[in-house]
Amino acid sequence: MLMKTQVHSPHFTKPCATASTVATAAAASSLWLGTLALGLALPVQAQTQTPVTNAAQATQPTALKVSEIAFGLDHPWAVAFLPGGDYLVTERSGQMRLIDERGRVGAPLAGVPRVVAEGQGGLLDLVLDRQFEQNRRLFFCFAEADPNNSSRNSTALASATLAENRQSLENVQIIFHQMPRIKSELHFGCRIAQSQDGSLFLALGERSHARQQAQRTGNHLGKIVHLLPDGSPHPDNPFLNNGAGVPDIWSWGHRNPQGAVITPDGKLWVNEHGPQGGDELNLIERGKNYGWPIITHGRNYGIGTRIGEGTHKPGMEQPAYQWTPSIAPSGMAYLHSDRYGLEWQNSLFIGSLRFGTLHRMSLHGDTAQEEEQLLLGPDERIRDVRESPDGYLYLLTDSRNGRLLRIEPPEPVVAPPLPDEAPQATGTQAPDGAVPAGPVLAVPPSGAL
Ligand SMILES: [Ca+2]
Questions:
Q1: Pick the CATH number of 20-407 from 3.30.430.20, 1.10.10.10, 2.40.50.1020, 2.120.10.30
Q2: What stretches pass through the bilayer (predicted)?
């Protein structure tokens, strides 16, 4: 399904192993067109005022390429960009590794705490401090065993300093422990977003077996917590001094958050997995209840029975967007740069673990709209999506041979002449005479999905 081609990007001068053509989902093949038409492109309209969505509209011809930067990673989960061009990645099985600018994968860094690498657990998210160039500080989260009962676990957040030689972590401190720890290998959540003021939002899952705890404010299950860089509660938290909940909580009623980003206007957006259907993108606001498991647009797996009380309830937030059927959203990035054109600039990009698709979302106040789906490959699982400081989008794929990929900017696309214009057309090249390199993939007209 993937079309192999050589990379001739003016932006990519380093040696790289392969490049793959990525097309809009609709363009990749008629098989995928059918699959996506049936399975992905039809988010279910909510019953009342939910600001969802039309089907993704692929209205522009698009032919994109990815460059493979590195491969052979063991279920990589998060990537960060170090000054000078190196990358830092986490692997779910517990390693943090440096990848140099030529794509060479280094040995595991020393100093990473022991993680619970079982089920969905392991070494998970990673972000650099906004002042990393001055302090070499970073934050990462992981599944942590209960020191008194190894069958129980939860999500923990750590800070550390990257050694000057980039071979180890120093000053490792576990600054937050999700409580209570329970016996589960599921729904760790574990995405970190650092605010402009340096504070940290950590999105936490409800561990699956304790879903009702997501509605109770006396614990950290199914919560987004807001912390100072030392792990203490942020002074603006809603339960800080009133006894109505644990002081770390910022929002609650979450199921399994998997992507988090703060946009330039300071808003926090988090996606989360629903059950069977009802995956969500939420605009997260202080002290709000996002509904799980009382309201959801999803259903119980397999049997399809209703969960909770329905899709809406007063006092509970509706998602900014929801996907039914589920796409299993993963990492999420906000694109600041104009390298991919003005249409993509200021969009959110969300990976899918289920379909190998990348979903471009436009944001409108407190709602979001899915604009298009980009296909990486039918057998791919996208785990993370990031924008580098120089404005490129990167992906991590989730497998035992996980890859770090960079999305290449589109090349000019030349439309063929209409038949009745052909006699008059003395040339079909672009105005400057350039002929696009690589395949040009047709996209069906708007509405064909
Ligand atoms: Ca919800």
A1: 2.120.10.30
A2: none
